[in-house]
Specification:
It contains 15 helices and 13 strands. By secondary structure, it is an alpha/beta fold. It folds into two domains: 162 residues, Rossmann fold (3-Layer(aba) Sandwich); 165 residues, Rossmann fold (3-Layer(aba) Sandwich).
Length: 351
């Protein structure tokens, strides 16, 4: 069947000239080209500040992928209002990459002009209830990245929300193909935008400070990364500079264990925990439901408080056999549950 898709990602409608690519932007940069391989026409509106990056990331995309640049208005609200002037053909589907309130007026204008067909929302975070209810009036198909996000929709809409998400480009995250030279240390890693306190970097550092002396000398904590040139006065803690997305898989293969001590509702899926699981790393995670659900079949240790985190780190430093078995369990779980499949997404929600 013929299929045309308007790809509205709020992040592409925001000024991004000098900012680093992280999180949901990584997904959008990979998913739009994959959609273009499954459709006859995919159009991505974007703020002008994205033009150099999109030329780079979309260089190998199918010719069915087109970008329409907005004027330099900097914010999703203002850029979205220009969309009717940029978009002159009707689309079968409109993919909305997050329930951003700022894009709603522009989306309403597109609908009024008959340029949008079925709207499909991917909620990476909880929508404002007013936004969710307006989208429901428009007949939107709702998807969420986790059950936690789905449960935060208005109660009367929850049975309409499908949970569908995973790591895109998962093939890059695989175990090391050769045994790493033994340096006598067990390397733990915490990956994310660590300037966000809820990522739990302080928790990890505090736990390392309280390790038994004979364990501390055998352990290293790698933090990737902070937005500044952060240093921490602990010889067991290494702060790494920001690295491009393409370098992260190899960094993970240099580790022995992944830490995910996040806390608070801002953690709605955690790409990094799944990337670590795919890399065959055992996981030590906090007791957030969005994290614990990923370890229900094994693959890690749930550490709900400081003492539990210290004990979990200590246990995995001392027990290499357990590290190996947990890592294997983690990879099996990730492969069976958390791999993004663009063709399946289209089959289920755009068919």
């Amino acid at each position: 069947m013929t299929r045309s898709i308007l790809y509205i990602a709020p992040t592409f409608l925001a000024y991004r000239l000098h900012k680093r690519i992280r999180g949901v932007q990584v997904f959008d940069l990979a998913f739009a080209p994959e959609l273009a391989s499954l459709a006859d026409r995919v159009v991505v509106p974007a703020d002008w500040s994205w033009r150099h990056r999109l030329r780079e990331y979309f260089a190998a995309a199918p010719p069915s992928l087109k970008v329409r640049y907005t004027p330099p208005l900097f914010r999703p609200l203002w850029n979205a209002l220009t969309l009717p002037a940029l978009i002159h053909q009707r689309f079968d589907y409109t993919f909305l990459g997050n329930p951003a309130r700022g894009v709603m007026p522009g989306l309403a204008l597109l609908r009024a002009r008959g340029l949008t067909g079925q709207i499909v929302l991917q909620a990476n975070r909880a929508p404002r209830h007013a936004v969710a209810r307006q989208l429901a009036k428009w007949g939107c198909i709702f998807t969420a990245v986790s059950q936690q996000v789905a449960d935060q929709f208005p109660e009367e809409l929850r049975d309409r929300v499908s949970v569908f998400y995973g790591v895109i480009g998962a093939g890059a995250f695989h175990p090391p193909k050769a045994t790493r030279p033994d340096d006598g240390l067990v390397h733990f890693g915490l990956v994310g935008k660590l300037d966000n306190a809820w990522k739990g970097a302080d928790r990890a550092v505090a736990a390392f400070a309280d390790l038994p002396a004979e364990v501390r000398v055998k352990a290293r904590l790698h933090l990737l990364s902070f937005g500044d040139d952060r240093t921490i006065a602990d010889p067991c803690v290494v702060c790494h500079p920001w690295m491009p997305t393409e370098a992260v898989p190899e960094f993970l293969r240099s580790l022995d264990v992944m830490l995910v001590p996040s806390f608070g509702p801002q953690e709605t899926f955690s790409q990094s925990i799944v990337q670590g699981m795919l890399t065959e790393l055992p996981i030590i995670a906090s007791d957030l439901p969005v994290l614990t659900e990923k370890l229900t079949a094994g693959g890690g240790i749930i550490a709900g408080d400081h003492a539990a985190l210290v004990n979990a780190i200590t246990d995995l430093v001392r027990d290499p056999a357990r590290r190996k078995s947990l890592g294997q369990e983690a990879r099996r779980t990730a492969l069976s549950r958390y791999i993004w499949d663009s063709a399946e997404f289209v089959r289920r929600f755009m068919n």
